[in-house]
Amino acid sequence: MPLVAYIGQRRSYSGVLCTVQYVGPVNGTRGEWLGVEWDDPARGKHAGVHEGVRYFACRSGLPTAASFVRPSRPADPPSTFSESLHHKYASGPPSSDSQEIAASNAIQISGKIVEEVGFEKIRRQLATFRELRIVLLDGLCMGGVLSGPRPAVSDTAWLQEIKEIEKTCPKIVELDLSRNLIERWEDVAGICTALADLRSLKVKYVGYRSLWIAAKVAHRVPAQWQ
After folding, report:
1. Spatial CB neighbours of 127, under 8 Å, sequence gap ≥ 6
2. Paired residues of 19 in beta bridges
3. DSSP secondary structure string, the chain?
4. 8 vs 18: CA distance, rounded Å
5. Dihedral, CA atoms, 91, 94, 97, 99, nearest 10 degrees?
6. How many angstroms separate the Cα of 218 from the Cα of each of 64, 80, 205, 221?
7. 73-124 confidence digits (pLDDT tens)
8. Apex CA 10: angle with CA 139 and CA 31, to 5°?
């Protein structure tokens, strides 16, 4: 089912991020369109103008920052903070150490060698996460603390994720959350709450919602936002 579109919504198409700046009809066409401004201003075809009619203005002010896309076009799904962290710092081919561990953990079933779950590898990865001090999670389709909005009925999942962040990477002092799918400053504040040692925060291209929470973050963490 396509996402319900609204002004200020952050979206990603095939890994290319944008902000919805217009929802509605476009003269000379049928149906509804989304006017999006790409984070990469060279990605688009115009500046919010079609056949002499301006439908929206681009924040960048550049002539090729915008495009019109159909609401039915599939968008990339958002990820949680923890998923983005693992994707950035635990992805990639296994090291020689992890290959040796996997080999030592191999077991046999009916004469066939089967690789056992690499608990030691997982332990080492978690140990590495706990030592991270500078973390760059820009451009990873992160939706925030969770992949979606904070649940209105129950805070259980939200609070569990905050505790997980605090436990997994407690030594982060510099964090870049720019160019993601974050729309709520509540998510930025929640992540900062979990990182007691955080001293520098970069959050360019975050959505426009709940901007008052920025003040709560800024009193403790020097931040750059756009």
Report:
1. none
2. 10, 37
3. -PPPP-TT-EEEETTEEEEEEEEEE-TTS-SEEEEEEESSTTS-SBSSEETTEE----SS--TTSEEEE-TTSPPPPPEEHHHHHHHHHH-SSPPHHHHHHHHHT-EEETTEEEPPP-HHHHHHHHHHHHH--EEE-TTS-EEESSSSPPPSS--HHHHHHHHHHHHH-TT--EEE--SSS--BHHHHHHHHHH-TT--EEEETT--SBTTTHHHHHHTTS-EEE-
4. 10
5. 140
6. 33, 22, 17, 5
7. 999 999 999 999 999 988 644 444 444 434 444 444 455 443 444 545 555 6
8. 135
Structure token pair of residue 168 = 């997994």
- Other C-beta atoms closer than 10 Å to the C-beta of 57 total 14
CA angle 29, 30, 31 (to 5 degrees): 130
